[in-house]
Amino acid sequence: MKFIGITGGVGAGKSSILSYIREQYPCEIYLADEVAHEVKKPGTACFRELIQILGEDVLDETGDIDKKRMAEKIFADDQLLEKINAIVHPAVKDYLLERLNEAREKGTVKLFFVEAALLIECGYGELVDEMWYVHAKKSVRRKRLRESRGYSDEKIDQIMKAQLSEEAFRRGSDFVIDNSGSLEDACRAIDERLKKMD
Known about the structure:
By secondary structure, the protein is an alpha/beta fold.
């Protein structure tokens, strides 16, 4: 079984690529953002550690961590984000490695994917068999983000500035999927890559 990381900047079209892979191949796909939500649920070690740092006033009526309240606290304290990441990122990694081992033991899928914008920064390059970078030209990404998410140019600038540069993404990856044009072309490149892996 192959463990593949999928990364790329905002608006590159990672979701469309993953939808295609999910439809065409027997695989398991995990989105790091969804896993981060999972590991922050009440009762987890991660949840307990976060509450120690953030305080109980970050909880909503149901006892879950309120995303908005958490974001407000982080915004008010620069060092808080680092502390939170130091708790959440390792918890996400542990969760994914557990799922990976389970998938290996079951032996029902040949491919195991994890998607996140921060895979390279979080050291997944050493864990995965291959790191794939979904690339799209900045102008294409901007257009997508304006149309699909209604983002302002200012917000797009802010997000892009916080992410890795094109060169850093390429340096940290084994395979580049160009998703600037048609999705069909990008999917064809994936099919060829996976054929070589068989």
